[in-house]
Structure formats: structure tokens, C-alpha cells
Amino acid sequence: MGYKYRFDRENLVYINEKITIKTLIRDNCRKGFVGVILGVGIWCVSFFNLIESPKEYLLEQHGQNLVEKLGLVNSNFDSITNQLLDIQHRDDNFYRVVSQLNPISPEERKQGFGGVNAYSNLEGFLSSELLIESNRRSDIIQKQLKFQLHSLDTIFISVREIDDSLLAVPAISPVSPCDYHRISSPFGMRVHPITGKLKRHDGLDFAASIGKPIFATGNGIVSLVQKSKLGYGNRIAIKHGFGFKTVYAHLHNIEVSIGDTITRGQKIGTVGNTGTSTGPHLHYEVIFNNRKFNPKNYYIDDLSIEEFNEMLSSSKK
Fold it and tell me: What's the pLDDT tens digit per position in 116-150?
């Protein structure tokens, strides 16, 4: 069969051995066994590298869930953005129109967006693009909400000022329709009933019986209370703000004091015949920016008693 050399460890020499069939089979079996062991080892290493561990599997599932949730968040951002656009449209085309404010330009609403990359810390991940987009849209919506809240605060303040100005306007008759007989003297040029001379009359005279109630025609503060036997006689002046002032003259009783805060429809005195007067009546003036205007332009003079009383009630509320 042939020969081979074997090293004798005891004598430290090579011995020439004859190769038999048995020896050959034994050596081949050893080599084959080693090869099988190596092959199995290599296959196992490759197999376990391909198959994830339970921990890796859970992490991967968690990552997939996060990606799905981010997708849902972005879908919700679409809905929120549409609602914000609707609010912004109403803000510009209704709320600001009613409150007499200018609309906000698109450029002004977009201030502070873009610029330096603020999301560099989110780069380098498998879902970086989705993460960056979600954070970017979240920041934009937060800024838009903050801007919109500021706008609504501005509108609220403006509407409140408009509301105050509307309540300040002398918008009702100072005497109830059931209490005065007629307008005895209109606004404008007239022959003075005492001097007989042509003279401008700066208000309206409501002819009524002594003691009939007189009402403040708008919200304000009492700026003058004067009692006299001459001229306007007993009189009250109310500053309403926003340029308005009203005067009530020839009163019998005065029921307010200087500095009192007055609301529209509040009783401030009674009809009298004091001062330079030819009969019981209320002389009423409306002054705007130091100019006297026809009071008839500031109230409805054809209201029924029920309508007037309802308006008084509404004014007090």
C-alpha cells in the first residue's frame, strides 16, 4: 500500500511505517470528522448571525411600531393644519373685519419658519427623514398656534374697546315716550321764547310733567352737577368717553353726584322747571369732540313704551 513517516516522540526520530488499508481508513475518518466539525461550526455561526435574537426581534418590532405611530402623527398633523388654516381664514376675513383690525399677511404668519437646520441630532437613523419631518411640522404648528392665540387676544381687546365705545354712545331717549308730551323746541335756529331773538338752540326740549324720570343715555361718569336758578337751572353733565358728552338741564331733582359711574338707562334725576324756563321740560344736549349735534340723530324716537322699557332693561344688563 506504501509507506509514511511517523515522528516518535519518545526517541525523537522518524519511523518508517507501512500504510495499511486500516491505517488509511482511520486517517481519512479522522480528517473527515474534523472537516464535518469545522463545517458544522461555520454553518452555526452563519445561521445565528442570520437569525435575530429575541431581544433584537423585540427592538425591531418596537422600531416598526414607532414608525407606524409617526405616520399616524403626520396624518393628524394634516388635519390640525387644515383646522388652523380655517381659523386663520376666519381670523382675517371675519374676526378682524368685525373688530376693525387689518388682516395678517401670509408672510407675517410664516415668520420664524425655516433657517438653520435644527434637527441635525435626528440624522443618521433608519427613520431619520420621518423623524425630522414630524418634528418640523410639530414646531410649525406650535408657532402658528402661538401666533393665532396672540391674534385672538388682540381681537378680544379690540372688541371689548368697541363694545365699550358702543355703550358710550348716547343711544336712547332721555325721557320715556310715555312721559313726554312733545318736543317743544327742536335743535337749530329758533326764536328764543323769552328774549324773542333769533338764536341757535343747541339741544332738544322734551316737554313733560315735573317729576318724570330722566335716564342717562349712555355709559359714562358724571362730570358736572350744578344747581342754579338761572340759565340751565339744575343740570347734570356726563362724560361718556370716546369723544361723547351729554347735558341734562332744568331738572327738578338730581339723583347723582360728580364722579359717579353711570350706565345707560340709569335714572339720574327728574324733569323740572328750574333756571330760565317757560314750563316743565328737559333740555338735552349731545356733544361729540366739543361740537354740539342734533340729539335726534342718536336715538330712535318712534319706539313704543314696551320697546323703550325693553331697551332700558337690556341696557342695564
Answer: 566 666 666 666 677 777 777 777 878 888 888 88
DSSP characters for 110-168? TTT-SSS---GGGTTSTTHHHHHHHHHHHHHHHHHHHHHHHHHHHHHHHHHHHHHHHHH
- Per the structure block, which three cell numbers stand in for 311? 331697551
What DSSP element (H or E) covers 79?
helix 54-90
pTM for this entry = 0.54
In a domain, 61, yes or no: no
Question: Looking at per-residue confidence, does 25 or 160 come out higher?
Answer: 160
Sign of CA dihedral 225, 227, 230, 233: positive
Top pLDDT among 101 and 151 is at 151
Which of 168, 197, 215 represents a domain boundary (last residue)?
A: 168
What is the DSSP annotation of 257-304? Answer: -TT-EE-TT-EEEEEB--SS-SSSEEEEEEEETTEEE-GGGGS-S---
Residue 32 belongs to a domain = yes
Structural domain for 286, as ranges: 180-316
Joined together, the cell numbers standing for residue 192 give 328764543
Q: 191-217 pLDDT, tens per residue?
A: 766 666 778 889 999 999 999 999 999
Tell me if 286 is assigned to some domain: yes
Q: Are residues 294 and 222 in the same domain?
A: yes
Number of domains within the chain: 3
Pair 188, 303 in one domain: yes
